[in-house]
Amino acid sequence: MVNYYDILKVSPEATAAEIKSAYRRLARKLHPDANQGNEETALKFAAIAEAYEVLGNARERDRYNQRLGEMTLSGSDTVLTSSNRHAQRWRQMVYEKRYNDIIDRLMEEERLENLAFQRAVFPFVSLLITSVLATAAKPQIFVNTGVIGKIIIVALFIAGIIHIIGRVKDGFVRYTEEDIHESILDGQERPSRPMSQVGAAGVVIGSILACLGIGSLIGMLVDFPAQVLPSMFSTKFEPEFFLYPPIVTFFVDVMHSIVSRFER
């Protein structure tokens, strides 16, 4: 029986993200388009593609693990193949332990996947909401503060931008697909592919611009904050409004991360 873990060069205990990363790394190296159609490389690429189709699907991976375990046991001339009733009981305990390990691993992978999804989506949603609020309310914090306050705001803005870039990068690696042409799989049924990185970048940039536009439109129609507190809110659009969404997103996401750690 072919060992797909050896083909992808990963451990049987590897997570779904590690398997996906290993497949991408090998696909870039072995893709026929990058090796002038070399037949040996094409066969290796076909092997890793087949391995990823199985190990990249949680249900198929469980079936494969079960078959692999049965092959290992059936090939061993030990107590595992004995007809002795005590050996049979021990063998049943082994199967139960393996089943429980699979369930525990699936639950842990699901928890990590949910956490990774929150880490990717939560700051993005926070950025969109604060983009609307900042351009709609038009706060004047930067112009009304002193030199030290301006330095702090700029430093927080830079920290927020770096933080958001890190979150977006992690999300792109996990939830988008690089442009790897799988010509070797033509004619076979393939799983649905996620959005490409270019498409995802377009959605992210477009959403932010749309939220800034919506907030600006609301700000032109509603001047309530400026009427109530004219010293803190502006009646016209100012460049400083771009400073606040990354700062607020940074603080909100940090708080979310802290709360998530306490919930574990």
Describe this structure in words.
With 264 residues, the protein is mostly helical. The chain is built from nine helices and no strands. α6 (147-175) packs across α9 (244-263). The protein is elongated and about 80 Å long. The two termini are 39 Å apart.
Provide a short characterization of the protein structure.
The protein is 70% helix and 0% strand. It has 9 helices and no strands.
Map the helices and strands.
Layout: H1 4-8, H2 16-30, H3 39-55, H4 58-74, H5 85-137, H6 147-175, H7 197-221, H8 224-228, H9 244-263
Helix pairs in contact: 2-3, 5-6, 5-7, 5-9, 6-9
Per the principal axes of the C-alpha atoms, what is the gross shape?
A: elongated
* Low-confidence runs of at least 5 consecutive residues: 76-80, 179-192
User: Would you tell me the structural class of the helices and strands?
Assistant: mainly alpha
H/E element sequence: HHHHHHHHH
Main pleated-sheet profile: none
User: What is the strand tally?
Assistant: 0
Percent helix, as a range, is over 70%
The Rg value, from CA coordinates, equals 27 Å
